[in-house]
Design a protein that fits this description.
Blueprint (H helix, E strand, L loop, with lengths): L2 E7 L1 H16 L18 E5 L5 E5 L1 E7 L15 E3 L2 E3 L12 H4 L1 H9 L20 E8 L10 H5 L3 H16 L4 E9 L3 H16 L4 E7 L16 H15 L5 E2 L28 H15 L12 H8 L8 E7 L9 E2 L12 E9 L7 H8 L4 E7 L4 E2 L17 E11 L1 H14 L7 H5 L4 H16 L8
Parallel strand pairs: 1-4, 1-8, 4-7, 8-9, 9-10, 13-14
Antiparallel strand pairs: 2-3, 5-6, 11-12, 11-16, 13-16, 15-16
Length: 484
């Protein structure tokens, strides 16, 4: 078995992460089931013992957020009290106990909260079902959630994070990594549109320095729409600021093993563009809770191959295959089908990309999860992408979980199992050349001298030009001049 360590850097990444871990929790077997899940929970969860010698499972997870970003969730978890002495936190070195409750009881409070909040949540911790280890939460005490006078909204603020908080993040990574037998790599989600992009850059460098042979699967992400504070005057630099943060994030995270931008917003600049509608779904794009759910389901499905109990495929095989000729920037598309008769509409989750036979896909990993359908994945790939190298896998088990606290975003009637057939395509496409060149062209139009907070946070004109040229150089890897 090869374990995966997950890092979620920023509030939107944590909203995605809460859905992702709830999906994993649905596949933990607490009582007899007619169909056993195909996945090995030890890939993502850590097994341990409580003080009462009870077997426990807690996510192998580091979650990074701002002060006040955890909501009602205690920083060091809910299942053990933590005493402080002389200002230093004394942590028990063992594992967290998952309460011995039924799955329905475990989610009762979450469901009641959802009814009261009309299907929305302010904090990602409000609907997170699994309990966390004391080393999982890292809080940036220097910055406060919702503080409009001193926001954490500039890439450079993340690269200049407090040394103690940065070291706390690295120590948590080290703690979880050292207890694994065969660490395969990292699921790395990061908010690309804020200071968390800069912090993600530092964490990525730490991965490269300390774990150079491990796979870094990076998913920079940002919301599909923004709910702007009503008490803050409109700033014409708000959207250019987010765009420049995203540009810097994509450039610096390109050193990852694989890089897959994720958002339900169809573009990069100007932000926000109107989110494209997805057939069969009604998503409130101003709700981080709702817009993050589909992204979590897609990550769950694409990662199935290295989480299977039987014949798992290691992450490095996907890295080697999908990043051929240095093409590390990938796209992710998905379709969810309520019934076996549904025809899939595969929708892109990567801004600027459209999943179609014209999208110039060179290589893709396609996964179909769920009960048998009339849809033939192999035939679909051969017909629509005859020039592509298509790797596919059909996992005929239960579909992807969409039971509460997953949001009610589908138009169809939910069945009693509350699961859905799902398809993902994780692909390398020549379209990425245009996407990256467009980002570089838009970035070159920005007047850095008018964006003083970037200058104050350490971004210099020479580095800015290096980023623009670097994005264009990366784009060249996808041109016809670099045929496979």
């Amino acid at each position: 078995m090869r374990e995966i360590l997950t890092v979620q850097c920023g509030p939107y990444s944590n909203f995605i992460g809460s859905h992702f871990w709830n999906i994993q929790d649905k596949d933990l077997v607490y009582q007899p089931r007619p169909v056993l899940p195909p996945t090995n929970p030890n890939v993502l969860f850590r097994e341990g013992q409580s003080l009462n010698k009870e077997v426990t499972f807690t996510p192998r997870l580091i979650s990074v957020d701002l002060k006040g970003g955890l909501g009602a969730l205690p920083r060091y978890g809910e299942l053990y009290s933590v005493e402080e002495k002389d200002g230093h936190v004394q942590l028990w070195e063992g594992d967290i106990r998952k309460e011995n409750r039924s799955e329905a009881e475990d989610e009762k409070d979450v469901d009641e909260t959802e009814v009261a909040s009309l299907g929305n949540y302010e904090f990602w911790s409000d609907y997170l079902v699994p309990r966390l280890h004391p080393n999982s939460n890292v809080v940036l005490e220097e910055f406060q959630k919702g503080n409009t006078l001193r926001p954490f909204d500039i890439f450079g603020l993340g690269t200049r994070a407090d040394e103690n908080e940065e070291e706390s993040t690295f120590e948590s990574i080290r703690f979880f990594a050292e207890e694994t037998d065969h660490l395969s790599g990292f699921h790395f989600l990061s908010d690309a549109d804020s200071g968390f992009g800069g912090l993600a850059h530092k964490i990525k460098d730490h991965f490269l320095d300390e774990y150079p042979r491990k796979s870094i699967l990076s998913f920079p992400t940002w919301p599909s729409l923004y709910s702007e504070p009503s008490d803050v005057p409109f700033s014409p630099l708000r959207n250019p600021t987010r765009f420049l943060n995203i540009s810097l994030s994509l450039y610096y995270l390109h050193e990852s093993s694989l890089l897959t931008p994720l958002s339900l917003n169809p573009g990069y600049f100007p932000l926000p563009k109107k989110p494209s509608s997805i057939p069969g779904m009604g998503i409130d794009h101003l709700s981080l809770y709702q817009s993050s759910a589909l992204l979590a389901s897609a990550i769950d499905t694409l990662s199935l191959p290295w989480r299977l109990k039987s014949n798992p495929a290691p992450t490095f095989e996907f890295v080697d295959a999908l990043s051929i000729r240095g093409r590390k920037c990938l796209t992710l598309s998905t379709a969810m089908m309520m019934t076996s008769s549904d025809a899939p509409h595969i929708h892109s989750l990567t801004p600027g990309f459209q999943f179609s036979p014209d999208s110039q896909i060179r290589i893709q990993s396609a996964i179909q999860r769920g009960t048998p359908t009339k849809f033939d994945l192999e035939d679909y790939l051969k017909t629509n992408f005859p020039q592509s190298y298509n790797s596919y896998r059909v996992v005929q088990d239960e579909g992807s979980p969409i039971g509460r606290p997953y949001p009610r975003i589908f138009d169809s009637v939910y069945d009693k199992d509350e699961r859905m057939n799902m398809i993902t395509s994780w692909s390398s496409s020549d379209t990425m050349e245009k996407i990256l060149n467009d980002i570089a062209a838009q970035a070159s139009k920005l007047n850095l001298n008018k964006m003083s907070r970037f200058l104050e946070a350490g971004l210099e004109e020479d580095e800015f030009k290096e980023v623009i040229n670097g994005l264009m150089n990366i784009a060249d890897d996808y041109s016809n001049r670099c045929d496979l």
